[in-house]
């Protein structure tokens, strides 16, 4: 079955955002599905990599909702509608893609009902799209907090280091423990030789769905802060697209 | 005297003031039935028309009275969807209902749910209840197939008439301009206050009237005092 909600996860600095940005570019080029892109990394790297004009972040929506609650009375239903409205207005669009940034938490205090409604609003929004891609924050925290229970495919990204592979394994274990059914595949980034991948494959139980070579084009795009929407076909992008096709994410 | 009587009267005065003007017309309900129901996600690239962008003006309003609305109707003040020249237009959706409203809060919630649950193919709604705003997008295909505000009005009337305490419905759409939406700001503010007061006393169950922000409207509107007393009595029991 084709995954509908995919999260790109892994240790910090392994290239998650680069992989997400390449996939976004490809989804935009193909135009065959309406896709929701969620930048769940507080650093907002995907927003920068794609040059999406910054709309309101989910955390800004959260703050505004809390301010509304303080000012006016609303029951759960009105509150849910209001959040749904604000989340929809926070989307930034480009063709068949709609982009949503998580942002940084700013308002201190316990607003569990707002947080729950927000999560529900995002999940309900994601369901309306043909596909949703989440560029997750580094590590296992988001998976552990069960914030991504709607995710049905984890694209685990690692570099060739043992530490990065171990983090990917942990993420997969936690996600599987939480949901019992999330599929996962490992994409190894910054590979110098195929032997490196074979060596990783021999010491992990994860399904290695592909590997991405070191690529000057990516380095140049990163260095010059160019939008990944204009990334030309290059060995790295081809490798990511091929791996995504293997995982059933792209046809 | 009903909860929304004064709001209802003001809205009727607005409609009466527009009757006979160039932008005013009543859309025959029967001409607009049977538009398919569907929950659509509409992105910018497929949007033919956006209504109710907050920058241009947006309002959604519900009011009721006991005196029967003799005939269900759809009133349009301003151009209908195919006639709107700009890709984005101001929008107000006013729903006037007649019936019996024994428990105002329950009735309000039931009517509100009906308004929330309207789904029409090719139209996407978002509502911000705390600001009485409605934002909609209509896709190109729906417009090409002749989608009109009459279809929305017809669906609203059909669904509201299915509620057992409703005896009549008048739906008013305003697309004429920001000026007309501004003219509606008085009754809108009053309705907002009435709903806010009713919601506060029902949701919070706090009867410290002296410190309440809705003290003025509660003192003025007998129906709100009646709701408050009924809730107080219920709490004592």
Could you characterize what this model shows?
Chain A has helices spanning 16-30, 45-50, 58-71, 76-90, 112-128, 141-144, 162-179, 194-203, 216-223, 235-246, and strands at 5-10, 35-39, 92-94, 97-101, 131-135, 153-158, 183-191, 208-213. Chain A is of the alpha/beta class. Chain A has an 8-stranded mixed beta sheet with strand order 3-4-2-5-1-6-7-8, with helices on both faces. With 237 residues, chain B is an alpha/beta fold. In chain B, a hairpin with a 4-residue loop joins strand 7 and strand 8. In chain B, helix 6 (185-203) runs parallel beside helix 8 (222-236). Chain B is globular, with a radius of gyration of 18 Å. The mean pLDDT of chain B is 91. Chain A binds chain B through residues 34, 68, 71-75, 77-78, 81-82, 84-86, 88-89, 93, 95-96, 98, 128-129, and chain B through 39, 41, 43-45, 109, 112-113, 116, 126-130, 133, 135, 196, 199-200, 202-204.
Return Rg of chain B in Å. Answer: 18 Å
Number of strands of chain A: 8
**Order of the strands making up the biggest sheet of chain B:** 1-4-9-6-3
**CATH second-level architecture of the domain at 21-178 in chain B:** 2-Layer Sandwich
Please estimate the helix content of chain A: 40-55%
Strand content of chain B: 15-25%
What is the mean predicted local confidence, pLDDT of chain A?
86
Map the helices and strands.
The complex is a heterodimer of chains A (251) and B (237).
Chain A lengths: L4 E6 L5 H15 L4 E5 L5 H6 L7 H14 L4 H15 L1 E3 L2 E5 L10 H17 L2 E5 L5 H4 L8 E6 L3 H18 L3 E9 L2 H10 L4 E6 L2 H8 L11 H12 L5
Chain B lengths: L4 H14 L5 E4 L19 E5 L6 E8 L7 E5 L10 E2 L1 E9 L4 H13 L6 E6 L4 E7 H5 L4 H13 L4 E9 L3 H6 L1 H19 L11 H6 L1 H15 L1
Parallel strand pairs in B: 2-5, 3-6, 4-9
Antiparallel strand pairs in B: 1-4, 2-8, 6-9, 7-8
Helix pairs in contact in B: 1-6, 6-8
């Amino acid at each position: 079955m084709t995954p509908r909600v995919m999260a790109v996860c892994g240790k910090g600095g392994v290239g998650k955002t680069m992989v997400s940005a390449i996939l976004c570019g490809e989804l935009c080029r193909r135009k065959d599905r309406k896709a929701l892109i969620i930048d769940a990394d507080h650093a907002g790297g995907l927003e920068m990599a794609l040059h999406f004009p910054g709309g309101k972040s989910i955390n800004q929506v959260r703050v505004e909702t809390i301010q509304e609650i303080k000012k006016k009375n609303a029951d759960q239903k009105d509150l849910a509608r209001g959040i749904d409205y604000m989340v929809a207005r926070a989307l930034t669009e480009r063709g068949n893609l709609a982009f949503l940034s998580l942002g940084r938490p700013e308002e201190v205090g316990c607003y569990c009902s707002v947080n729950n409604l927000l999560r529900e609003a995002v999940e309900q929004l994601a369901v309306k799209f043909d596909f949703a891609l989440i560029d997750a924050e580094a590590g296992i925290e988001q998976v552990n907090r069960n914030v991504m229970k709607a995710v049905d495919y984890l694209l685990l990204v690692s570099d060739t280091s043992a530490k990065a592979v171990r983090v990917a394994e942990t993420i997969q274990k936690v996600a599987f423990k939480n949901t019992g059914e999330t599929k996962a595949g490992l994409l190894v980034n910054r590979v110098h030789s195929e032997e490196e991948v074979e060596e990783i494959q021999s010491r992990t139980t994860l399904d290695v769905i592909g590997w991405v070579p070191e690529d000057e084009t990516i380095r140049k795009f990163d260095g010059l802060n160019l939008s990944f929407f204009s990334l030309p076909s290059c060995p790295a992008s081809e490798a990511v697209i091929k791996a995504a096709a293997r995982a059933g994410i792209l046809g | 005297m009903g909860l929304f009587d004064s709001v209802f009267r003001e809205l009727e005065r607005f409609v009466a003031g527009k009757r006979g003007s160039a932008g005013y017309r009543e859309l025959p309900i029967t001409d607009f039935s049977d538009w398919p129901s569907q929950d659509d996600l509409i992105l910018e690239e497929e949007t033919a028309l956006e209504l109710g962008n907050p920058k241009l003006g947006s309002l959604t309003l519900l009011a009721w009275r006991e005196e029967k609305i003799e005939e269900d109707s759809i009133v349009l003040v301003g151009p209908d969807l195919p006639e709107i020249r700009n890709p984005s237009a101001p929008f107000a959706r006013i729903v006037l209902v007649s019936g019996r409203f024994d428990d105002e809060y329950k009735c309000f919630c039931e009517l509100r749910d009906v308004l929330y649950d309207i789904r029409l193919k090719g139209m996407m709604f978002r509502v911000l209840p705390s600001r009485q705003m409605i934002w909609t997008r209509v896709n190109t295909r729906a417009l090409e197939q002749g989608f009109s505000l009459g279809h929305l009005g017809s669906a609203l009337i059909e669904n509201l008439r299915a509620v057992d305490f409703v005896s009549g419905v008048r739906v008013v759409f305003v697309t004429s301009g920001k000026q007309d939406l501004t003219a509606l700001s008085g009754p809108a503010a009053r309705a907002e206050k009435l709903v806010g007061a009713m919601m506060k006393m029902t949701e919070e169950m706090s009867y410290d009237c002296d410190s309440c922000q809705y003290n003025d409207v509660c003192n003025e509107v007998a129906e709100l005092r009646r709701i408050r007393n009924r809730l107080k009595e219920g709490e004592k029991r």
